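[recover] target loaded
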């Protein structure tokens, strides 16, 4: 069973976003913004003589309700393909 955390208790730093979608609301003016993310549930200290941290992740959907007037800007010039 999945555990639900309060938004305020979660850390969203460095969570990878794989996709997003808008789901139109009943009023036709607002909707849900749904982000498909890899949520970091635990940061693991690097092993001795290693520089990079590792972490445990879980797939998650992060949903914002009643979104309106959304503007999205994507800048992929400084992308990273690190995993």
């Amino acid at each position: 069973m999945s555990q639900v955390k309060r938004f305020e208790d979660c850390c969203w730093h460095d969570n990878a976003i794989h996709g997003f979608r808008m789901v139109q609301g009943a009023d036709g003016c607002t909707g849900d913004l749904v982000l498909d993310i890899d949520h970091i549930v635990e940061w693991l200290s690097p092993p001795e003589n290693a520089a990079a941290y590792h972490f445990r992740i879980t797939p998650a959907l992060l949903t914002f309700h009643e979104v309106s007037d959304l503007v999205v800007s994507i800048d992929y010039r400084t992308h990273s393909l690190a995993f």
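[recover] notes: The chain has a mean pLDDT of 84.
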